[in-house]
Design a protein that fits this description.
The protein is about 45% helix and about 15% strand. By secondary structure, it is α/β, with parallel strands linked by helices. The protein has a 9-stranded mixed sheet, with helices on both faces. It has an 8-stranded parallel barrel with strand order 1-2-3-4-5-6-7-8, surrounded by 7 helices. A two-stranded antiparallel sheet has the order 14-15. Strand 11, helix 14 and strand 12 form a beta-alpha-beta unit. Helix 2 packs parallel to helix 10, helix 18 crosses helix 19 and helix 19 packs across helix 20. It is elongated and about 90 Å long.
């Protein structure tokens, strides 16, 4: 009878890492600690060990895994697996063919196969592999083969989705993990972004090497990874979506949810400790306006852009705004560190890719951020959204959008939302907001918003201020609340007798953000489901 296999947290060992760290733990002790922390399957990979040493290590580790009820797989070496009666093997594309491995091991052993293309996955499924190891997600020092490409979560998703389709058509149950540079900081992003676009099916787990083997405490490292895995599989809003192509809520239910978000933000807190602390790494042109808008909305802004501060700030931060309007190399480092720490704490990130289509440097940087960290909300004007989706319908002239507009803006924002597994807000004369299931048009706002610098950036601030409480339940409602609040305040400011133009409008705008009541919000909200 084939052993049971739980792929949730898959540890691949590397004695070389232990030696480099000058650890006092043996390999078997490291594995035992990791299992206590939550590792569910162990692959013994010892590429440099002589056969006798490999067998000795395998026997020691097998004693631990058998006692603790966790499957032990041997990397590549069928002879070692047979010698210690391991639960199975894991083979790569350059190792023994799957059919031959099955002939030698029999039907009662587990065989996993590394795949890096759709064709390799299809062949492994047809050959009866028990699971797939899809790689390589991120570049890693443990895989130095130049032929191994860094695919990122979206590349992994393509192979996973193809594998599910093959399995469905052939009647095979497909199970898979991904490997390559995965750690506690990016686990949730990887598990979220690799979900099938067709069925929302997640990978069965993640495989790690350095995240545990290089840790001072394998138990603590594994425990943290398990916490992140559970959140990625069950706790995020994407995990709780039914199917991406079915919107189960009606427009009135969404309106009510948006109103509740605003009402919650407007309810005076019993303690300043519950006021959302909104971390801004933003452009120098709008720092003051965004800080004042955040305060007027009921939040507490902090404008910390030094990389060395991000780890200390992260536990207290409610949401993060990343705005690349006046990007510099120092700010890039701060953004990376801030987003990395935000992902560890599952703190919502609002990404405002200002001028992303203007230069190759901005395009490359935003692509890196979306690949490595992702976002909970992407907010941009039509030109910025066009640059992200590769459309020629709109373009950037500096930070301004130029063009006649999208023929089908709802499709554009929905497709980008599905691709990036986040809410997308596209600002303009009409604002569009999508969570990949539904698209809403916001018809509030005033033309004077376009006459001052920073009105679009303040939308990002508003979204971040409201979304913190619903980021993992209903980020669509949080994003809509932010967009509507800013636009209603603009309407109220523009209607004042003391507003004569852009200069007086700017001051009145902040006043009206502060003055916006729940009643005016509910009565004035003009959103349309498309």
């Amino acid at each position: 009878m084939k052993p049971s296999l739980d792929l949730t947290l898959y540890l691949v060992t590397d004695s070389g890492i232990l030696a480099s760290a000058k650890s006092n733990r043996t390999l078997a002790q490291t594995v035992e600690e990791a299992i206590h922390g939550g590792v569910t399957v162990v692959q013994l990979r010892e590429k440099q060990a002589a056969t006798s040493e490999f067998v000795r290590l395998a026997a020691a580790v097998k004693e631990v895994t058998k006692r603790m009820g966790v499957a032990l797989l041997i990397n590549d070496r069928i002879d070692v697996a047979l010698a210690v009666d391991a639960d199975g093997v894991h083979i790569g594309q350059d190792d023994m063919p799957l059919a031959e491995a099955r002939r030698l091991l029999g039907d009662d052993k587990i065989i996993g196969v590394t795949v890096q293309t759709e064709e390799e996955a299809e062949a492994a499924i047809a050959g009866g592999a028990d699971y797939l190891g899809i790689g390589t997600c991120y570049a890693t020092a443990t895989k130095r083969d130049a032929r191994v490409a860094q695919r990122g979560p979206q590349g992994i998703r393509s192979i996973w989705e193809h594998s599910l389709n093959v399995g469905h058509s052939t009647g095979h149950r497909v199970r898979a993990v991904t490997i390559g540079g995965i750690n506690a900081h990016n686990t949730v992003h990887v598990l979220t972004c690799t979900r099938s676009l067709q069925t929302n099916a997640p990978l069965d787990g993640i495989a790690v090497v350095s995240a545990i083997m290089a840790s001072d405490s394998p138990r603590d490292a594994a425990c943290l990874l398990r916490r992140q895995i559970e959140f990625g599989l069950h706790g995020s809003w994407v995990a709780r979506q039914r199917e991406l192509d079915s919107d189960v809520r009606g427009p009135e239910e969404v309106r009510s949810a948006v109103a509740r978000v605003f009402e919650r933000a407007r309810t005076p807190p019993a303690s300043t400790a519950v006021v959302p602390l909104v971390q801004h790494i933003t452009n120098t042109v709008v720092i003051n306006d965004c800080a004042n808008a955040c305060l007027a909305l009921g939040g507490s802004p902090i404008m910390a852009s030094d990389p060395s501060e991000q780890r200390d700030l992260a536990p207290a931060v409610s949401s993060v705004v990343v705005n690349i309007g006046t990007i510099s190399s120092g700010q890039m480092s701060a953004i990376r560190e801030s987003m990395r720490e935000a992902r560890l704490h599952n703190t919502p990130i609002v990404l405002d890719p200002v001028g992303v289509g203007a230069t190759a440097s901005r395009r490359d940087f935003v692509s890196e951020l979306l690949r490595d960290y992702g976002a909970h909300v992407i907010k941009g004007n039509a030109g910025e959204i066009a640059a992200l989706v590769g459309s020629a319908e709109m373009r950037m002239r500096g930070v301004d959008a130029v063009g006649v507009g999208f023929e089908d803006p709802a499709r554009v924002v929905r497709d980008l939302s599905r691709r990036e597994r986040c809410v997308v807000v596209m600002t303009g004369k009409v604002d569009y907001v999508s969570d990949g299931c539904s698209v809403y048009a916001v018809h509030n706002g005033h033309r004077l918003q376009g006459s001052i610098t920073g009105s679009g950036c303040m939308v990002g601030t508003a979204v971040a201020t409201f979304i913190h409480s619903v980021a993992h339940d209903d980020p669509l409602a949080g994003a809509l609340a932010g967009v509507v609040a800013i636009n209603l305040a603009a309407e109220a400011a523009a209607s004042r007798d003391d507003v004569k133009g852009p200069g007086t409008f700017r001051a009145a705008f902040i006043d009206e953000i502060h003055n916006l009541t729940v009643d005016r919000f509910v009565r004035g909200m003009r959103i349309e489901r498309l």
